[in-house]
Amino acid sequence: MKKRKTLLPFIILMSAALIVGCENESASTGTVDTSGDGWLLPQGAIYSGGPGKDGIPALSDPQFQSASSANYADDDLVIGVKFGEDVRAYPHIILDWHEIINDKVNGRAISITYCPLTGSGIGWNRRLTAGKTTFGVSGLLYNNNLIPYDRATESHWSQMKLQGVEGQLAGKKADLYRVVETEWGTWKENFPSTKVMTTNTGYDRPYGNYPYGGYKENHQSIYFPVTHSDSRMKAKVRVLGLLTAGKAVAFRIADFPPTLTVLNETYNGSPYVIIGNSRENFAVAYKRLAEDGTVLHFQPEYDQGSIVMKDSSGTKWNLLGRAVSGPLAGEELPVTRSYIAYWFAWAAFNPDTRIYSF
Amino acid sequence: MMRVKKLIPLTIVIITILSLPGQVPGQACCTSGTPILGTLELPAGVAGSFQTALTYQFNTLDDVINESTPLEESLRRRFTHSLVLESNYGLSDSWAVSGLLSFIRQGRHNNTLTSGKEVLKVTGLGDAVVLVKYSPLKATLFSQRNLSVGAGPKIPLGDFRRRNKEGILLPYEMQPGTGAWDLILWSNFYQGFRPVPLSIYLTTAYRLTGRNSLGYQFGRELTLNSGMTYDSSFPVDFSLAFKYRAVAPDSRNGQAIANTGGKWLNLKPAFYMHPVEKFTLKLSGQLPLYREVNGIQLTTSYRISVTGLVNFRINSQE
């Protein structure tokens, strides 16, 4: 009896220690606190990637260096933007670790969003109806794809769905900026005046080491379940996906000829131009409409100043869909809802995608 | 006796070989979970003996390691409080059965830019283990050597489908349970040196993991605890051990997940007190000596634990 009395305080002490813990917090047990107005995605298909909110730190105010002083490999992938004379490149080797870079380029507030698990890189206007904001990484994934959140309203967004999916801004379409995803060698050759982001980010990361092991080469490795699987292409094949009013269309980048190729296509009555080159590892799509509504027809044209095509009026256009010289000089082709992604992810978001046959 | 002696290295070698985790390059975020293997410490005992150990353990994961290099990082932190009850009953002088139940409370702190510190906490019953143990070599008056080997299942009692209030599944490593049946292989070797009050021991445990119904499989795990105990004439005894833990990467549908798995070598000092007869109180800590993780991981900074062990006989003639 005496022994039992001796043990009793010990058991109570240990049980209390476990229940109270070493923490003194009034936090949610078994829940994550988010003030949501309901998701526009099936919650059962949203997964927590592991690190949690801001566990993958988005970057703001990145630092840049000139192309000549940078030592990135020519075949390193970058996402490039150009506003006026300000040309910038954001390397994948940095985006792999941070996923979002909030920047201001020639007065434009832009977020470069990149999801390493779906290989999708998109440029967003971070001026929302709620005001200018920055985006952060929520730690949640849908179809393995990045779910950013905006810091103005804490609304969640689906990167590949291009819209708000939870919170005050649920249902709002993302305003896209024109970006080009290609190799560093190709980008700097087209835009020699480009600056490129440095790895001086304020975070201690082994930039250059891919953080997901053999993931991008292994077609069998998909971390979280997807809502739709499509075996017409291998999972990690990179495609340019184009959302049209009807069926989405996917262009396999490796299927473009190894020379500059310009496709004049019409989908559901809308005219598009798709420009690609498998050797230089890029593909972009614009609407082939002049500002006055004239439907343009393009043919490939390599020239200085990143010119890649000319139209029947003789106007020359660059990789970013801007008229550089000729009668329409200064015009810009309308941006499309298109981006590069791994096939498995594109197909999961767009199950009825038509695959373009070259 | 000769045959039994041969069994000692053989058993250790077999368990070690079986348990070498495959080195597949490996993501998620960390390698942790209920400290089941590290808690299996009770030897087989003798016929009719009953031992119950209740262990409280606090494990804090505060360090971010890239392979073996520490990184400057203060974005997140994890902790685990666990209560593990292990009971052992000697069926005969050679055979015993052990059972282990765990209860876990784990949390994750993220320093966010907008909402300050965001906390996720999960509490629940963890997985359980049943082991059948056999002692081919028993310590006697003439031999201070004991060997026990054991095997049994890890039973997936813990919930592995815990969701937040929005219906989103919590990360696999934050679930109280694994959802998978595992096979545990275990051995314990003890050598005393009386009249010198010193003994050495080696406890080996290997977890051959199964895949849960979500297709997730935690990495196979090996732990080796090797140390010495000094039975002083004072009220407090002391032991010092090295704990080696190797974990293969987790996988999903057979594909390795990056940033999971690795190797850890820790130093484990412990103090033992015997405040009353047949009751031992053990205080121990665990400090990292060497850590080599796959990729980048948030990993254990230190552990502390308190164990109360009761030892008595059922149907005793005494």
Helical percentage of chain B: under 10%
Shape of chain B: globular
Shape summary of chain A = globular
Helicity level of chain A: 10-25%
Class by helix and strand content of chain A?
mainly beta
Alpha-carbon Rg of chain A, integer: 24 Å
Strand residue content of chain A: 35-45%
Q: How many individual helices of chain A?
A: 4
Q: How would a crystallographer describe the biggest sheet of chain A?
A: 5 strands, mixed
Judged by helices, strands and strand pairing, the structural class of chain B is mainly beta
N/C terminus separation of chain A? 87 Å
Largest interface: A-B, 60 and 69 residues
- Strand element count of chain A: 28
Name the beta content range of chain B. over 45%
How many alpha or pi helices of chain B?
1
Mean pLDDT across residues of chain A:
89
Q: Can you tell me about this structure?
A:
The complex is a heterodimer of chains A (358) and B (318). By secondary structure, chain A is mainly beta. In chain A, 11% of the residues lie in helices and 37% in strands. Chain A has 4 helices and 28 strands. Chain A has a 5-stranded mixed β-sheet. Residues 9-37 of chain A have low confidence and may be disordered. Chain B is mainly beta and 318 residues long. Chain B has one helix spanning 2-19; strands spanning 49-66, 69-71, 76-90, 95-111, 117-137, 145-155, 182-193, 196-208, 216-217, 221-230, 236-247, 251-252, 255-256, 262-276, 279-293, 296-313. A 12-stranded antiparallel barrel of chain B has the order 1-3-4-5-6-7-8-10-11-14-15-16. The longest helix of chain B has 18 residues, at 2-19. Mean pLDDT of chain B is 85; it is low at 7-33. The interface between A and B is large, with 60 and 69 residues.
